[in-house]
Specification:
single chain; alpha+beta; Yope Regulator, Chain: A; 5 strands; elongated
Amino acid sequence: MSINFVQIRFDRPDDDYCPSATLQPYLEAVRRTLEAAMCLEQFSSQVVERHNKPEVEVCTSKELLLTPVVVSRNKQERVLIEPSVNSVRVSIAVKQADDIEKILCHKFTRFMCQRADNFIILRRKPIVGYDISFLITAAHTEMMYKHKLVDFLIHFMQEIDKEINDMKLALNARARVSAEEFLKRFN
């Protein structure tokens, strides 16, 4: 099995660097890849009669699996898109600059995965090396609009970074207030 890599790179001087300038092309590459991968159809199992399992999960027939694609913004931020004839697995690695962000990301994704029943397309356990995974089957694309599923995934990718940054700011503010109150007792 081969994996295609898509690396979004911009050669800019450091003084002109703007993170949002590289975010849009990255999200656009993910959007286009997801739109291409979402061409799903119902496909019964070739091994067990009357079973319709997501081929990307069970991997019973190699000819039904398509080439996985990794869209990468940098070493930490990347998306693995694994398409098959009847399902797509999307795994997202979130940017984690320091230990606090790693802990917050782990807690946030664990919180989401524990409530995977409420999020129809969310997997309970992410793929190794990624923080969160989604599984979209042909049944999901029949129940929901494909473009809305893609919009949701792109919006999720935008918002998870904001959420983790907001939690980090709130944590730092709370730690500062706690430290000030603690040190007041010694004055």
